[in-house]
Structures are given as structure tokens and as C-alpha cells.
Amino acid sequence: MLLGIASAAGVDASRLRVAKLETAPSAALHGLLSVIRAQRPHLASMTYVEFLCHVHRQIQNKLA
């Protein structure tokens, strides 16, 4: 069991928050999360339909 849940099935990951404590491990974890968030593509915040439309537009632009 991690983060107080037995399974990630059905969990809205966008609502999960990691508490920021005044400890060295907490600061290290938040530093790591900041690096990961800075490196992930912004396409991850799109819905699946928005992503498909975005890819479709890119293909159309390359073929034009």
C-alpha cells in the first residue's frame, strides 16, 4: 500500500498531492518531482481527443 491506497485503479492522479514537510527527505523528493515535471512534455496535459486532433494537425501541416 502506497499513499494510503491499495490500487491505482480508479484514482484520479491529477488530484494526488505529496505533502511538503520540513525534512531533508521531503525536500529531496520535491526537488526530484520538480525536475520530472520540468522535463515532461506539455502534451501530457491534453485529453486523448485533444492529443489526436493535435497529431492530426501536425500530419496535415507536413503533407501541405
TrEMBL record:
It comes from the Eukaryota. This is Uncharacterized protein.
